[in-house]
Design a protein that fits this description.
By secondary structure, the chain is an alpha+beta fold. The strands form two sheets. Strands 1-4 form a two-stranded antiparallel ribbon. Strands 2-3 form a two-stranded antiparallel sheet. It starts with a strand and ends with a helix.
Length: 88
Amino acid sequence: MPGLTGLVPRYTHIRYSGYDLLGKRIAREARDFHARVVQHECDHLDGVLYPLRMTDLTKLSFMEEMRYRAAAGEAAPTEKELEELAEG
C-alpha cells in the first residue's frame, strides 16, 4: 500500500518454529523489533495486509501527512504506546 502507514499492534516477544532448507527443524525466539519484523513477514506469507491487523484505523495515514505532522512538532508514537497496543 504505497504511501500509507499505520500503527499495527504486535507482540514484543514471540517463539516460532519451522524447517530449514535441508528439512531440519529449527526453533527461535524474537523480541522487540525482531519480533515485529517476523510477524510482519509472516503476514506477507499469509497474504495479510497491515490494515487488517490495525485496531484503530484513525492511526492509518499517508506518509506525507506524517512528515507534515512531524515537521509541525507532533510526536510519533512511543515504544510504550506500541507495547500497550500489542497487549491490547
